[in-house]
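Minutes, project huddle
Topic: does the predicted pose make sense with nicotinamide-adenine-dinucleotide bound?
PN asked that the exact inputs be recorded in the minutes so nobody has to dig through chat later. Recorded below.
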Amino acid sequence: MNICVIGSGYVGLVTGACFAEFGMQVVCADVDADKVASLESGEIPIYEPGLDDLVERNVRQGRLSFTTATPEAVRNSLVVFIAVPTPPRPDGATDLGAVEAVAREIGESLNGYKVIVTKSTVPVGTSRRVRDLIQEELDAAGKAAAFGIASNPEFLREGAAIQDFMRPDRVVIGADDDASLGILRDLYRPLFLNETPFVITNIATSELTKYAANSFLATKISFINEMANLCERVGADVQLLARGIGLDGRIGPKFLHAGPGFGGACFPKDTRSAAHFAREVGESLEIIEAVIRVNQEQRARMVDKIAGALGDDLTGATIAVLGLSFKPETDDMRDAPAVDIIRGLQARGAHVRAFDPVAMPRAGELLPDVTLCKDAYEACQNADALVLVTEWNQFRMLDVERVRKLLRRPVLIDLRNVYEPGSLREAGFDYVSVGR
Ligand SMILES: NC(=O)c1ccc[n+]([C@@H]2O[C@H](COP(=O)([O-])OP(=O)(O)OC[C@H]3O[C@@H](n4cnc5c(N)ncnc54)[C@H](O)[C@@H]3O)[C@@H](O)[C@H]2O)c1
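Predicted holo structure (tokens), as shared on screen:
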């Protein structure tokens, strides 16, 4: 089966490479000519564990290729995935400009029956809008061509994307007609054989399921962060509290880690988008609105926490920050808590030295006033405090004796509760964490 994936970013590239691995003939299309050129020369423009090998193998075996010529890629495919960005507008609404542009391009290129699948995260009604735009283009050209539309939201996590795509907890497909559904079932057959659960539904349910999933996970994070804040007031320990509730099978232990709040390209924008499109249809998602507020306040609280550990005055202080990507195992810095926290520290007069294992190139563009260091220890040199923001594995076992000697003051603020308070205090640190 020939397929094309339009948009070759975190989702599109992983989707394309994994379908190629299943044996499909895949073309990944993108408007970014530099990105396509680097992919063609064997360079992977993002950091995602295992993706370089997967892409290299499938390109070498002739099943995966890249192009800027979207119309040609569409014409040669039976299934067309849309995996372009759906960024937030200032009011929280989703900017569907890229999805709509691609829909029109597909309409202009259609030369026979195809299934057009929305994989981007989109508000309810968008896949129908894709259908209308394709039809408009066909009508304008005086052409007739049959096509089906479907929604197939993506649930992969950056940092574990390949595993998540190959062995997903579930696949959700929304389709209105049997032909489209039959073709998608065929495409996903390798997963059916692995006994992956499939949720087959209508398009609106499929589109909304993605927002419900991300909003629910974000809710767990804001919930545990509120509990952490309360723990600090009453002398309780949020780590043990999380264990105490997480062992209840109805609750589960995942996403109950107190910290600086959620970030990244998905949770912040998807919660705001869900709240926004619900308001537009006359419903108010009170829980999600609160989750968003709590998350924003949590970042400001982290800045207060760091300032508090240094006597509330950060003027002229130097702060070492470890971990800049929004979570470990990715270079993605979109809406990363580290960015707001660093800007908050700078606004209070602090100078920041920072290190991240893979996000340094992006950090340099986003945070021009930060001194970027070559490793964790260089960041600590002559700093007044060390702040751990993103829990990369290499920060879990720092040589704390060396860190203490490098710092001007022995202050360690651990926003991910990675270290044991007792042992850090024994090692001579003023140790501050979240909710303990
Ligand atoms: N990143 C994730 O973890 C994740 C997970 C699930 C769902 N999603 C959703 O998937 C979608 C894509 O996200 P992403 O993180 O892969 O974005 P991304 O920014 O990494 O990649 C998008 C790609 O689309 C390309 N593009 C933009 N306009 C285009 C056009 N008109 N034609 C062709 N290519 C175009 C861009 O150049 C870019 O390479 C979003 O809706 C996002 O919410 C993302």
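Observations noted during the meeting:
- The pocket of nicotinamide-adenine-dinucleotide is lined by residues 6-12, 29-32, 35, 70, 83-86, 98, 101-102, 120-121, 154, 156, 158, 265-266 (CB under 6 Å).
- The CA atoms of residues 323 and 357 lie 7 Å apart.
No decisions taken; revisit at the next huddle.
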